[in-house]
Amino acid sequence: MSLKHLLPAALAIASAAIAVPAHAGKTLDAVKARGQLVCGVNTSGPGFSAADSQGKWTGLDVDFCRAVAAAVLNDASKVKFVPLNSQQRFASLQAGEIDVLSRNSTWTLTRDASLGVVFTGINYFDGQGFMVPKKLKIESAKKMNGATVCVQAGTTSEKNVADYFGAHNMKYKSVVFDTAEAITSAFFSGRCQVYTTDMSDLAGARTKAPKPDEYVILPEVISKEPLGPSVRRGDDEWFQIVRWVGFAMLEAEENGLTQANVDQQKSSSKDPGVQRLLGVTEDTGKLLGLDKEWAYRVVKQVGNYGESFERNLGPKTPIGLPRGVNNLWTKGGLMYAPPIR
Amino acid sequence: MTSAPIGDAAWRARQRARRVREWALQGALALVLLALAIGFARNIGANLEARQIKSGFDFLHDPAGFNIGELLFDYSASDSYLRAFAVGMSNTLRVALAGIALASLLGVVVGLMRLSRHPLLAWLGGAYVEVCRNTPLVIQLLAIYLLVTELLPEAASAIAIDGVALLSKEGLQIAVPQAGVLALGCALGALMIGGAAAWLVARRWLEVGAGLVGVAAGALLALVAWLLAGVASGWSQPALDGFLISGGASLTPEFLALWLGLSLFTSASIAELVRAGVLAVPAGQWHAALALGLRRSQAMGGVIFPQALRLTIPPLASQYMNLIKNSSLAVVIGYPDLVSIANTSINQNGQALEVIVIIMAVYLSLNLVVAVIMNTINARVTRAPR
Fold this sequence. Notes:
Mean pLDDT of chain A: 87
Number of strands of chain B: 8
Structural class of chain B: alpha+beta
Largest interface: A-B, 62 and 60 residues
CATH architecture of the largest domain in chain B: Orthogonal Bundle
Number of strands of chain A: 12
Oligomer: heterodimer
Shape of chain B: globular
Order of helices and strands of chain B: HHHHEEEEHHEEEEHHHHH
């Protein structure tokens, strides 16, 4: 053990409580033994993970967790949702308190390489934007010199806005809060002129404004924010399962399988790709440590990616986001799943 | 000599053996503790490496990459984490010192109110103490911050004392001298010199309270010096500029809410300490003072209060340290203190362990300094009367 590692660790004797046994290689067994998937989600992210007044969770990330539960535990309802703010999310995953982090978190090099977590894929291509009150008459992000900007602590948004304002030689004052509720309360009461976070978050936050029409989301997208689920580093088997559940949802949409028609397709389809996906001809689940109907259960109990999107973020929801780049590659978007074979 | 030692020599031999035994036991214990510590350290290090989490203090030299909303000195996103922590610590110190001053003032006033013979004053003091002491500090901070941001007007229609101060959602902006550093220097100089001079003069004429006179005179002279510097070098006045107010110095709503919240909460406990100190002075002192013909206010100020200080100062140190530690709740209302900046750093570079160690070390040193200062004051207050 080199001195470089001994020195900081020796100073923190009392925090030896961090020494939990690593679950490397054992997450699948632990989830099956527990009979429940523990999923880290957002405290309040409309469209991605939010609890309604009865305590029922809905959202794109929530659907993803339920899909993993359907694949692994045969039942999409066997999920325990743990709301986490932006400070706690990766620490909870590192410490083993949750099995999957599905909390609209951006996939970056620093997070992939140095936090002890690994991202399994992208379930929403997003970008960072700005929301301002209409009465300030700011038409473009380049006219925000000297503004007070509300931003959430410890997010990529904080760093991106510093880069953006620096690059355009504009000054700003940042007010940093630790929860989304605190920020929206400060922004809608007028404490800051600008709210910056991912575009999907802005759309969701606007739905909760006292007067949503008084706020406009500026057209500039200042960064790439690919959002996706992540798992602990070191457990390859669990990583593969979570990754391929995501791909299965995309493959299902590509093949036209929906919650409504999957039973009928399973019994009558002649397409070898569909038959393989639903476990009629081949057992792809065995290679992942699951059974052969893993993808069938995902589609039957949760739906394909497009259905999940329409249900949570689509034009018919209050958030009303277009598919845009989140459409399938065959329809001009960026969603592309490797073949399941 | 081959026979066993007796008498004095025997006693000395027994003492030596006892000392050897005790040192051997302590040495063994020290080795065990050291082994435990090294064992924990290796365990932590092994776990960090197994999960491929970076460790070490090298990150302190990396660029921080985030901006900080309130600064006492220059800082930009490309400065190092170390500088960001320094800014955070300066913000913590700023709110802690302001909080200690206001909390002490309010605490003494409310404590004396509770001791008053007027039932309304006593009741008001009691109500204040019960409300501020019995509600959680986090809730008080959130409530005050909500009030401040909801009730204050927008920057465009700020409450104004023309050219001097503007109160709005941006906070309190006040006009300050253009040559800010020079003005502060003059004020500080006036505080020291004027205060010392006033103290020396007051010592000759007053039995008790010369120190207080010195402090008050020093503060007054500092204010006068600062105003003179402003008049001489011109004022930087706050004015609406675009959609924001610029110019002057500003106290943000976050700072105001935190300062007010911390002061109210801690002043309730300080009020009780003051009351306890005054009530602990023997009744005979009151009787003697009144019998000598002193008015109540003279008796309280000259006889009772100085004796009450003996009992009040030691627990006061705890209250000040509590205030400093409670200032870490700033992260809840968006004030960029040390803990808030540490949280952002942890999220950016993932090194939770090292950053928390730094925070703990900083708070520990701050509180040790407070403890040393209060112990010195305590020693002076509790020395035997001349």
